[in-house]
Specification:
Oligomer: single chain
Distance between the termini: 56 Å
CATH superfamily: endopeptidase domain like (from Nostoc punctiforme)
Order of helices and strands: HHEHEEEHEHHHEEHE
Number of domains: 1
Low-confidence stretches: 1-20
CATH class: Alpha Beta
Radius of gyration: 23 Å
Largest sheet: 6 strands, antiparallel
Strand order of the largest sheet: 4-3-2-1-5-8
Structural class: alpha+beta
Length: about 210
Amino acid sequence: MRLIGLVAAVLLAVGSGPAAPRVLPPVPAPAPGILARVPVATLEASLQPADLVFRRGNGLWSGYFAVASGDGGFYSHVGVAVLEHGQWRVVHTEADDRTGIGGVRSEPLQVFLAGAHGVAVVRPGLSGAQAEATVRLAAEPAWRRIPFDSRFSLDDDGQAMYCTEWVQALVLSATGVDIARPRSRFGGRDIISLDDLRLGPGAVPVLEHRR
């Protein structure tokens, strides 16, 4: 009886017949992002308005953008830190990985960095008044309506902009300061790379964490 009971228990556990469900191995959990190592509060304590926040994302195109970012070849996206209603947010432009359609958005810092493999904060070489002017312009509806430039072209008179182009143009329009000099070249044409901003004239590293 004990043997029969054991066999019955095994059959109940694994099922019987061709229609029985298969027991699949567990799917490995994704590696934790940078926020598992660095609390959001720690990052927020170091921020000032108009700081540039870089991330290494985990999207379909993140590796491509990292390669195009410059000699460092790590970061894949950037936005501008703003303090809205007492909350640190990042204003940036990005597109859907599959459609290439997107635009400017404002997200809480923790949302901007969700799943990211790394973060860096850089303070551009701006005065306090210039930083305030940059933040004010970043809130203007006209700047938030600019569509994402999936062609990654600097020759369309700003009709559409990709992430680094939007940040550079925003600061230039607000202050007259070009924070992305010199320009990089990629694929035979001029671009504004991540490292043009991260290592630009007057840029001061504030923090960096890589997973």
